[in-house]
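We close this part of the discussion by returning to an individual protein. The sequence in question and its structure tokens are set out directly beneath this paragraph:
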Amino acid sequence: MRRKNLIGLTLCVLIFLTGFLIKGNLGLYFNLAGLMIVVGGSSAAALLSFQVHRLKIVFQVIRASYTQRNISEDQIVEMLINLAIKSRVEGILSLQEEEQETSILFLRRGLGCLVDNYDPHQIRDILNTEMYFFKLRREDSERVLRTIGDFFPAFGIIGSVVGLISMLAGIGDTSVILRTVPIALTSTLYGLVCANFFFVPFAANLRERTNHELLLQKIILEGIVAIESELNPTVLKTKLLSFLTPSSRQDDLVPLAKIRDKFNIRSQEDTDRAGEQPAP
């Protein structure tokens, strides 16, 4: 996780917990019975819905999304430009070294296609298939997280119903009411917090990470095909910069004055000056 995100998360969690402490003791919001109903019921529903292997994969994907370094688009563009230059100078087979060294699996797959001398149509078909099923796997993991997130509020309501039933059964006995009311209230709290503080944000983060990685894969795909076609590195750079935001490629824009000189375009100021000059 990026440092700024981690600092912001810590501050927001502290503010969130402070809201519980302002009007009372934090211990008032802890109820073991309600927590067991919500966590136990939601976990059982998850195990009934998905295989343990599927849940393990989702956990690994979430852990990786928060721990692995996020490569930026401009880093990928720079890497592909360097590979294009190396390919033109030393030949396609020289990229076999990069295939063994790179840690980006999708780029490594594309370099392997280049080294194995696949034609552009085959490379595009293979990498598009890789992208398609990568997207399907990530969407499936996101679906699992959102489904589990839906379980928690439902079991929070179940815990509240359990508390209300116990409370109604003890009408007339103040001690029973005092023991059961916290179950009814805290169960709903636990369900909402677990869903909206953990699983829904996990799914949203996975969606954002997936979209970013698909963009990187699209850049790599176009770069690999261009390298195979021996496209000029300068032309390739111009093409790949189209994937970046305008702020990321501001330094690569052609100066406006150069465009005017190239196409003989006169500015409004020059036009006004020409109109002010007296006729000979």
